[in-house]
Protein: Na+/H+ antiporter
Amino acid sequence: MGASLLLVAVVAVGIAALCRRYGLSSPLVLVTVGLAAGWIPNLPAPELDPELVLFLILPPLLYSAAQESSYQAIRANWRAIGMLAVGLPLATTLVVGIVAHLTVPNLPLSAALVLGAVVAPPDAVSAQAIGRRLGLPRRVMTLLGGESLLNDATALTAFRIALAAAVGLTTSLGQGLLTFAIAAIGGLVVGLVFGMAVSWVRVWLTDPPMETAIGILVPFGTYFVAEQLHCSGVIAVVTAGLFLGQRSVRLGYATRLQDEAVRKSIDVILEAFVFFLIGLQMPFIIEGVEGESWVQVGIDAAAVLTATILIRFIWVYPAAYLPRLFVRRIREHEPLPPPSSVFIVSWAGMRGVVSLAAAFGIPLMTEAHEPFPARAEILFLTFVVVVGTLLIQGTTLPWVVRTLGVTGDDRAQDRLAYAAAQDRASREAEHRLDEIAADLADDDPRRMQVVLMRKWITSQRNVAWEELGRGPEAIGESPTAAGSRIRTELLHLQRAVFIEERDAGRIDDEVLRIALRRLDFAEGQGDRDV
Structure:
């Protein structure tokens, strides 16, 4: 199994690299290739392990998404996100469960609600990966991102309640609500405790490699502890991620640079692995429904997939507009969402690996030692919903975005905000330089450093204003950008000389590493200035 998982990861990353190189949507390509590869004879394709997904893949992806999210943006849109992350999964559980109960033969309502809870949460990875590539407006991405961070907790809690009823463990509505409340509040508390503790430790250490190492372990430890306390591990990880993301400004620059690089590398590997693994599950799923009427299976699959897609539209549009009719404060403080953006939010409901993991986690037997009703059919229908939404909605989402013209002016607004903030920062720095220069004699050699620093501050301000409202594609190469390009060329030249010196035996490898580290930092600094 270990060798199979390693092979899947290597192939998946290779495919993802090709997709990124040629501008293709890697989630969709990986799922498609996985579907095809699953039928190759004697291929050592691993069966999806729910524990692998829920304990080793989901936590770091959620943690990374939380750290990159904006707490202020989520707080400003808490009502809309709550409707999507709490209300919609519960509505999906109920509607899909009823449709499945009425459509699938011999499927009791309790087991049908298990299916509804399994397919309820849209996938965090799918929405973020495709949305980033399409350049959706920031508010749309905030809604999709905030929803994907929290809906897993709602759906998985609903799944546990429905599963308890289906296997014969009596669970009343009151017990279910109490379980949900304990899971949510407990997860919030665990996440805050971990976040505050880790934040204090990282600041106290002032050791970038160790700080980054601790950061890698945070999502796993937080999730594990929360689940052991019967709380929501998802909410705990998201809370810790949001808290530490806000506190990251207090870390040293080396830790922030390391954290971002390591986090993005881990995300690339896990996202590629997840989507490829989804495609590879088809043979295992098909085995379970062999001998069934394929006409009936097709009808069941079409009904459940259609219900899953339609309930999102039926929920999102009223949730976007009806509260404005009844609550004056919402009308006054929240902008009217354009219908095109509401449609995009409704259409971006791709399901993913969390749904499959939950489905594979359904037990084989009930408490009465009888086979779980229609377990194979539930697995198959879950797979159809996951792959169907990824391929149908995922492949058409770029076309829908272009057709509706859903583009934001976030870049222009960001340039304006950055230019204004950079101007204020530059003025403060220049004021400090004046104070330093006033304490230096006219012939003090340190005055040269003050002059150089002043030029550097001026270049920072110039970059911000030169591209205000327009990018390099519109104004061409600015003077400051030209200076940075020449500077980079000179750095490359110096790097080549140091390498030649090492190859000729005139300097040691340790000297070369010191030189390259300094040149790399100088080049990176130049890139950030532009």
